[in-house]
Design brief:
By secondary structure, the protein is α/β, with parallel strands linked by helices. It folds into two domains: about 260 residues, Crotonobetainyl-coa:carnitine coa-transferase, domain 1 (Rossmann fold, 3-Layer(aba) Sandwich); about 70 residues, formyl-coa transferase, domain 3 (2-Layer Sandwich). The chain has a six-stranded parallel beta sheet with strand order 5-2-1-6-7-8, with helices on both faces. Strands 9-10-11 form a three-stranded antiparallel beta sheet, with helices on one face. The radius of gyration is 25 Å and the shape is elongated.
């Protein structure tokens, strides 16, 4: 398979985004074969996340590069072009690149690109077939449109922090920038849908995507629980709002996850605990009754599980086909044979030296993802791209 092939081979992406949401989207498009040119401001030393370290990649002499681990997490398969869009020359170069592009993605504040003539209203008049994706904190409309948006603020405003953490503790964000990442995923879906429309009709369009909107969208069952009942969901730590037992339980030497999803699994779980009486107790025999008597059931289950070793619980319940699993640290995750078998850790050769990255989870039977180029240093491709007749050509 040629290095440039993939399901999106031939699609050209002009990336004016930075931080995580937009770059997550464009890295995914790049993994799928699209050609991506990332625009970075030389006055600020490029994407903000280049300075979000340590850790950084170092060269053979131990000199620090501008490749932070954070930046590398979402910027492979891209060319980096250093341009100052505040200058007439920079604006002219963006319009030239846009003339070749299928997609433009940006995450400036709403209205922020209008003063450069690079907003959708202006640029679409010249390039009506362009798919133009705008990512912002609160969207292009609404009373909060002018407010800045960051992942933590989106998690707070969008409600997920109210659901996360110990019930007796403070609201807690998710351990990674999940609002940014999910926004990037929605952006990718929206872009591909708009690209399909463009290919059928010739019409481009703007995609208006907000961190907070996507955060609200993936409240999923808890959001609809509230809309259905009017009851405000409460933090339950690792507990599930609609299934019991579905939680993290302490063992004699660590913790395990139990995900008992139906009554037959609960019966087998009770068999493992040598407590068959629990399975026929009216308080616990069905999931609705277990939900009603959650604390009473956990008062029995927690000491019973705590008296057993982690391996014994996992092996015993797996043998009975009761869903169970470990709580692994990151080093344990990447040491597993499963991660290796699924190629979820990859090595690429970057300018300062080899780098270890997380692989793409998509597996195609005919058009697999490709890892063509490592995350670039800032401006690495400026001269080559700006002097090329076809700037998106690999």
């Amino acid at each position: 398979m040629a290095a440039s092939e993939g399901p999106l081979k031939g699609v050209k992406v002009l990336d004016l985004s930075r931080i995580l949401a937009g770059p997550t989207c464009t890295q995914l498009l790049g993994d799928l074969g699209a050609s991506v040119i990332k625009i970075e401001n030389p006055a600020t030393r490029g994407d903000d996340t280049r300075q979000w370290g340590p850790p950084y990649v170092e060269d053979a002499e131990g000199n620090r590069s501008d490749l932070s681990a954070y930046f590398m997490s979402s910027n492979r398969n891209k060319k980096s072009v250093a341009l100052d869009i505040a200058t007439p020359e920079g604006q002219a170069q963006i319009r030239r690149l846009a003339s070749h592009a299928d997609i433009l993605i940006e995450n400036f504040k709403p209205g922020g690109l209008a003063k450069y003539g690079l907003d959708y209203k202006t640029i679409s008049q010249e390039f009506p077939g362009l798919v133009y994706c705008s990512i912002s904190g609160y969207g292009q409309t609404g009373p909060n449109a002018s407010k800045p948006g960051y992942d933590l603020m989106a998690q707070g405003y969008g409600g997920v922090m109210s659901l996360t953490g110990d019930p007796s503790g403070a609201p807690m964000k998710v351990g990674v920038g999940i609002a940014d990442v999910m926004c990037g995923m929605y952006a990718c879906v929206g872009i591909l849908a708009a690209l399909r429309h463009r290919d059928l009709t010739g019409e481009g369009q703007q995609i208006d995507l907000a961190l907070v909107d996507t955060q609200v969208a993936w409240l999923i069952n808890e959001g609809v629980n509230y809309l259905t009942s009017g009851d405000v969901p409460q933090r339950r730590g690792n507990g599930h709002p609609n299934i019991v037992p579905y939680d993290v339980y302490e063992t004699a030497d660590g913790h395990v996850i139990l995900a008992v999803g139906n009554d037959s699994q609960f019966q087998r779980f009770c068999q493992f605990l040598e407590r068959p009486d629990l399975a026929v107790d009216p308080r616990f025999a069905t999931n609705p009754s277990r939900l009603e008597h959650r604390e009473e059931l956990n008062a029995v289950l927690r000491p019973a599980v705590r008296g057993r070793d982690t391996d014994a619980v996992i092996c015993g319940l797996e043998a009975l086909k009761v869903p169970v699993g470990p709580v692994q640290s990151i080093d344990q995750v990447f040491a597993t044979e499963q991660v290796s078998a699924r190629q979820m850790q990859i090595k690429m050769q970057a300018e300062p030296g080899s780098v270890n990255l997380i692989g793409n989870p998509l597996n195609f039977s005919r058009t697999p993802v490709t890892y063509r180029s490592a995350p670039p240093v800032c401006g690495a491709d400026t001269d080559a791209v700006l002097s090329a007749q076809n700037p998106f050509e690999d």
